[in-house]
Automatic annotation (TrEMBL):
InterPro entries: Mn/Fe_SOD, Mn/Fe_SOD_BS, Mn/Fe_SOD_C, Mn/Fe_SOD_N, Mn/Fe_SOD_N_sf, SOD_C_sf
Reaction catalyzed: 2 superoxide + 2 H(+) = H2O2 + O2
Keyword line: Iron, Metal-binding, Oxidoreductase
Keyword Secreted: no
Annotated binding of Mn(2+), by residue: 34, 86, 168, 172
Keyword Metal-binding part of the UniProt annotation: yes
EC category: oxidoreductase
Name this polypeptide is given: Superoxide dismutase
GO molecular function terms noted in the UniProt entry: metal ion binding; superoxide dismutase activity
Main function: Destroys radicals which are normally produced within the cells and which are toxic to biological systems.
């Protein structure tokens, strides 16, 4: 999921749908600010921070791996991880989302959680109980699936886990549409936008 080609700086990847495609769950107004301002700022900040350094020509995943847990590189890690997280989040949503997962993924969800509804309940719980800013994730841990939550810019790939889906619970992801009703946003995303096909594609 690198956003880099050759020696070019990191770029803001295009959205996989139009800015009004997720309405009414997520408005074009929210998407405009979230993608066009927040996501873009992370990309711009990352490029400024790594310009002229040994990380200037490194892939996005490489930058994340090289800076995770490094006290003197926190700003680089935070911006690189947020570029990665947001790109992954946009792909975790689909205008035709919700519904049932593909058969192969559904079988693994049933084995790990007991059923799709139980999986969704765990995702909703992780997303609504994450204190402050962060993310709820469906991840692959060895042969099983589980739900985790991370704070701020933290992400599963530095924990040896393979992310399949994520829900952004930073306030800028939902506040313009839902104000403080995070649970309503999470429920609507899980019911109408979550991209099980993307998760199935990642489950390899």
């Amino acid at each position: 999921m690198s956003n880099q080609t050759g020696n070019a700086p990191h770029t803001l990847p295009p959205l996989p749908y139009s800015d009004n495609a997720l309405e009414p769950v997520i408005s074009a107004n929210t998407l405009g600010f979230h993608y066009g301002k927040h996501h873009k700022t992370y990309v711009d900040n990352l490029n400024k921070l790594i310009a002229g350094t040994e990380l200037a020509d490194v892939s996005l995943e490489g930058v994340i791996a090289a800076t995770a847990g490094q006290a003197d590189k926190v700003a680089i890690f935070n911006n690189a991880a947020q570029v990665w997280n947001h790109t992954f989040y946009w792909n975790s949503l689909s205008p035709k989302g919700g519904g049932e997962p593909p058969a192969s993924l559904r079988q693994k969800i049933e084995t790990s959680f007991g059923g799709v509804d139980a999986c969704k309940k765990e995702l909703a719980n992780a997303a609504t109980t994450q204190f402050g800013s962060g993310w709820a994730w469906l991840v692959k841990d060895g042969d099983s699936l589980k739900v985790i939550k991370t704070s701020n810019a933290d992400l599963p790939i530095i924990k040896g886990l393979k992310p399949l889906l994520t829900i952004d619970v930073w306030e800028h992801a939902y506040y313009l549409d839902y104000q403080n009703r995070r649970a309503d946003y999470v429920s609507a995303v899980l019911d109408k936008l979550i991209n099980w096909g993307f998760a199935a594609d990642n489950d390899v």
